[in-house]
Design brief:
The complex is a heterodimer of chains A (589) and B (356).
Chain A (H helix, E strand, L loop, with lengths): L1 H8 L7 H30 L11 H8 L1 H34 E2 L3 H8 L7 H12 L4 H8 L16 H27 L2 H9 L4 H12 L1 H16 L3 H5 L6 H7 L9 H24 L17 E2 L2 H29 L18 H8 L3 H32 L5 H13 L2 H18 L4 H7 L6 H26 L2 H9 L4 H12 L1 H16 L3 H6 L8 H10 L4 H35 L2
Parallel strand pairs in A: 1-2
Chain B lengths: L3 E10 L2 E11 L4 E5 L6 H9 L6 E6 L2 E2 L5 H4 L1 E4 L11 H11 L4 H14 L15 H14 L4 E5 L7 H18 L2 E6 L2 H7 L2 E6 L2 E6 L1 H6 L4 H6 L4 E11 L2 E6 L2 E5 L14 E6 L5 E3 L8 E12 L4 E7 L2 E7 L9 E6 L5 E4 L1
Parallel strand pairs in B: 3-8, 3-9, 6-7, 7-8
Antiparallel strand pairs in B: 1-2, 1-4, 4-5, 9-10, 11-12, 11-14, 12-13, 14-20, 15-19, 16-17, 16-19, 17-18
Helix pairs in contact in B: 3-4, 3-5, 4-5
The chains are: A mainly alpha (589), B alpha+beta (356).
Chain lengths: 589, 356
């Protein structure tokens, strides 16, 4: 028995280790999240470093005095408000139907609703242009039906490209609102509505007075995400050649980053706009009701529908899904269409697979796929390591700063991707200044030389919240006794982590990692802004570049987009298969 | 073998006091029970001994070694969790082997010990199963085996039987005693079930509101409770308010609602001085005898009306109303068809007089 005791005494004492850990996490956030934002604010309000300027509102106010930039802001705001409005109008009825009714193919429909998430809106924009263009599919359909004359161009949005941008973004972003509203609705106790109906309130009144207020938290969460996302969306307006929006104006001023405070001030204004939108959303929707989180006191009231009810509901979902898949269909059809053969016709006149072959051999696409996989994998690994540590600190430790860490880990959801990407570009220049005498360090941080480091970090930061949330959920579902038992048996913190915690929340980590990987593969803002040399272009940047080329460029871009979609679908499906087996073993307690 | 000593141990969570000034010595190889109602601090005390929580004050000793500052990893005071905390991603063997691997035992030694403890808990046939393929009782055995495999200085059991059905619980009780005594482990066993404690413990420590109320063998606690709360918590009892009205031989005479009762052998406890002192008298239901016919009158004999009868299987319980006081009487073997008047008596030796 004594022998056993001696074997245990060499184990390290745990104590200050976790403080070091927390300090390191805070340092990571400080350097990779707060510093880039701070840098943008600094230059926006103080001018370029070295010019010794004090605090000034001059640069920011100049943005508002410039009529072009002002128009950009107004357009961006309009896009944001309209996209969010459309998303809410689409999502709320869908969410209510999916929570309240049982209908045919509910599982499949639920899955199809989320499909838009696997294609960034800016790729969908290419497909949408084919369909809504003056000589696009819709014109041909109209001509076929005799609504318009043969060969007459139709400007479906009255020449207002902004509506095209809104449509594409809304069709791509509505799942975010849908998921949040559905989650909020599922938490609403049906007894509350029943009580109102029981008191004699009409269905409309119940919805307006009870249901809507109770689902506000979901509307707020989803709505503000979409509001900020669409306000700062760069790729879609770019693809629609709609340049009079703030994000695109920032994009076109990237070359001035090293010498002028104007792009900084523009980003500052965009950041302030995001904060204002968030505040507006909070004001309109965010007054949380505690009641919304009470658990149901009566059994779920999902109602079975009659045959006609089923037909009706499925039809509604079918229309939305059909519309949402239009961009994808457009992209797929473009990718198999002969060059110039899909013009003034409903379908391409010539079908070909050559673009797929080209997408796999083209000197732009091949390295871009490899780059994206590399960047996304590296950022995923970073996310998993960081996410696990953060989740552990947040859920399991009693460290004083854990609330702050949790808040910081969620911050990237609220900070526009464009702002962060721009911030990274800004610190890249700053770092180059610091390291100008150390060649290898300078090259490491110079995005024009090699963006790998900063791009991977930017990807990782942007997607960290998903991994943290996922790991936090896993830890919260895992009884702490399982870890305590291991420590009580003599296992060190690290051994416990490796042999107990990680295997137990493995499924959550894999799920979070997959999301991080998939979104990193499709990241637009960081990729367009930080990847500057063609050798280091990721897929999204390659698509953007190809699209602007004449000849077969857009077709290859679409083929590449389809390859990317396929790759992502495959990743998710295969992981699901792998996980499926292990999930059974892990969760059947 | 390890002797465990607690010295003025206290634990506070914020402002709430979970434990206050606990002094306790548990002998080497003893099967010691911590008993008390839920929320009394018994599990907290166990966690302090395991090193899963730090005491707010006081010291904990294993033999002559002060372990108060030691992390749980270094104590080798191994706990069986109430939830068992079996790792669902490992087999039974993997679970049991874990602690041995952590301690750096060689592969052969590991399998030898795993086989040994699995045999001890009679689980050798199920070593390759996963925890979710086991019944509650089997899981409980694996949890025990996992703790025993590392030969802990002190084995800590947190309500080990609370998740089992009544029959299995009874079986496992004596099983645990057998295992602990065979391996000569110092065992501390937490429960809120007084029957469990009375039937297996060497000694029991009774906790209430974070304070240690009384420590003693099951017999001492049962027959000599220090307070009426202890008397009531350890088995059921009839508590009667009264006051001491005089002495008689080695005992005292107590005036109660059912008349004057003579108590013997407990004079020195409860009341310091005679005189009209307010006391509580405790008489166990099973120590009451039903008197039939014309038996010779004993010292304490009362008669009353039966207001309720319950058949308990091997015994029957009757509630007898005497002058408005209700007495519970247990008859073994059971009596049927009791109705109306009932005469009961009890010995002066079985009456415990407690200060109020």
């Amino acid at each position: 028995m004594n022998a056993d005791r001696h074997r245990l005494t060499h184990l390290p004492r745990v104590g200050w280790g976790k403080y070091v850990l927390a300090g390191m996490i805070l340092a990571v956030f400080g350097v990779f999240l707060l510093w880039p934002i701070g840098r943008v604010l600094r230059v926006g309000f103080f001018g370029m470093p070295g010019e010794g300027g004090g605090f000034t509102l001059r640069y920011v106010s100049e943005i508002f005095l410039d009529s072009t930039l002002r128009a950009g802001l107004v357009n961006s705001l309009m896009i944001a408000v309209m996209v969010t409005g459309v998303c809410i109008v689409i999502s709320v009825p869908l969410a209510m139907m999916s929570v309240r009714y049982e209908f045919w193919g509910q599982g499949v429909i639920g899955g199809l609703l989320l499909v838009p998430l696997i294609l960034p809106p800016f790729v969908g924009a290419i497909g949408m242009r084919q369909i809504l263009g003056r000589f696009g599919v819709l014109t041909s359909v109209a001509a076929e039906m005799g609504i318009v004359g043969e060969g007459v161009p139709v400007a479906w949005f009255g020449g207002m490209r902004i509506l095209g941008v809104v449509l594409v973004e809304a069709l791509s972003l509505y799942p975010i609102v849908y998921l949040n509203v559905a989650a909020a609705l599922a938490n609403v106790d049906p007894a509350m509505e029943q009580a109102a109906a029981n008191l004699g309130a009409s269905r409309w009144r119940v919805f307006w007075k009870i249901t809507l207020p109770l689902m506000r938290p979901g509307l707020f969460a989803g709505g503000t995400l979409v509001l900020i996302w669409s306000f700062t969306e760069l790729g879609t307006p770019l693809m629609f050649d709609f340049y009079r929006v703030t994000p695109v104006q920032v994009f076109f001023r990237l070359t001035q980053v090293s010498g002028s405070p104007v792009p900084y001030a523009l980003v500052v204004v965009m950041m302030l706009g995001s904060v204002a939108l968030y505040a507006a959303g909070k004001l309109a929707l965010g007054r949380g009701h505690d009641a919304a989180v009470t658990k149901a006191s009566v059994a779920s009231s999902a109602r079975r529908l009659s045959v006609w009810g089923n037909v009706g509901v499925v039809l509604v979902f079918g229309v939305v899904i059909g519309l949402a898949l239009l961009p994808h269909v457009g992209v797929i059809l473009t990718s198999v269409s002969g060059v110039g053969s899909w013009y003034q016709s409903m379908l391409p006149k010539v079908f070909t697979m050559q673009h797929y072959a080209a997408a796999l051999t083209h000197d732009v696409t091949v390295p871009s796929v490899a780059n994206s996989v590399t960047f996304a994998s590296l950022s995923m690994v970073l996310d998993v390591v960081l996410g696990l540590i953060i989740a552990w600190v947040v859920v399991r430790s009693k460290l004083p700063g854990r609330g702050l860490i949790d808040g910081l880990a969620m911050l990237p959801l609220a900070v526009p991707g464009l702002v962060l990407a721009f911030g990274y570009l800004a610190i890249s220049f700053q770092l180059q200044g610091w390291f100008k005498d150390v060649k290898w360090l300078r090259e490491l941080v110079d995005v024009q030389e090699n963006p790998t480091l900063l791009l991977v970090l930017a990807y990782a930061m942007r997607r960290l919240p998903y991994v943290v949330r996922s790991a936090v959920a896993g830890l919260e579902q895992t009884p702490v006794d399982l870890e305590l038992a291991a420590k009580n048996m003599g296992a060190s913190t690290l051994t416990t982590m490796r042999r107990i915690t990680v295997p137990l929340i493995g499924a959550n980590l894999v799920a979070g990692a997959l999301l991080a990987f998939a979104f990193a593969m499709l990241e637009v803002s960081d990729s367009l802004i930080l990847a500057q040399r063609a050798t280091y272009w990721p897929i999204t940047k390659a698509i953007y570049d190809l699209f602007q080329r004449l000849g077969d460029g857009p077709y290859i871009a679409c083929a590449l987009g389809v390859w990317a979609m396929a790759l992502l679908t495959l990743t998710i499906l295969s992981a699901n298969a792998v996980l499926g087996k292990r999930m059974g073993a892990i969760f059947r307690v | 073998m390890t002797r465990v000593r607690l010295e003025n141990v206290s634990k506070r969570f914020g402002k709430a006091v979970a434990l206050e000034g606990v002094d306790l010595e548990i002998c080497a190889g003893e099967l010691f029970f911590l008993l008390g109602p839920s929320g009394c601090g018994k599990s907290t005390l166990l966690r302090l001994i395991a090193g899963l929580q730090e005491p707010s004050g006081g010291r904990i000793w294993f033999n002559e070694e002060d372990v108060t500052g030691l992390a749980t990893q270094q104590r080798n005071a191994v706990m069986c969790f109430q939830s068992y905390a079996l790792w669902p991603h490992m087999t039974v063997r993997g679970n049991v082997k874990f602690g041995l691997g952590v301690r750096g035992f060689g592969r052969e030694e590991q399998s030898r010990r795993v086989d040994e403890v699995l045999r001890l808990v009679q689980m050798e046939g199920l070593a390759e199963r996963r925890p979710n393929q086991l019944s509650g009782g089997q899981q409980q055995r694996v949890a025990l085996a996992r703790a025993l495999a590392v030969r802990p200085r002190c084995l800590l059991l947190d309500e080990p039987l609370s998740n089992l059905d009544a029959k299995l619980r009874q079986e496992m009780r004596s099983e645990i005693r057998r295992i602990c005594k065979t391996g000569q482990f110092t065992t501390i066993y937490v429960t809120h079930d007084q029957k469990e404690a009375l039937s297996v413990a060497d000694r029991i420590g009774l906790l209430r509101d974070g304070k240690l109320i009384q420590v003693g063998t099951p017999g001492e606690l049962y027959h000599g409770p220090k307070t009426s709360w202890v008397a009531d918590f350890i088995g059921h009892t009839n508590l009667l308010k009264g006051r001491v009205v005089g002495r008689c031989g080695e005992g005292v005479r107590v005036e109660t609602g059912i008349g004057v009762i003579v108590a013997k052998g407990t004079v020195d406890r409860g009341q310091g001085s005679a005189g009209a002192e307010a006391v509580v008298v405790s008489v166990r239901p099973e120590q009451m005898r039903v008197v039939r016919g014309t038996e010779k009158a004993g010292r304490n004999r009362v008669s009353g009306r039966v207001v309720e009868s319950t058949f308990l299987g091997e015994a029957s319980e009757h509630v007898v109303e005497v002058n408005g006081e209700r007495l519970r009487v247990i008859c073994t073997p059971p009596m049927f068809g009791v109705d109306g008047e009932m005469v009961v008596e009890f010995d002066a030796e079985d009456v415990v007089v407690l200060s109020e």
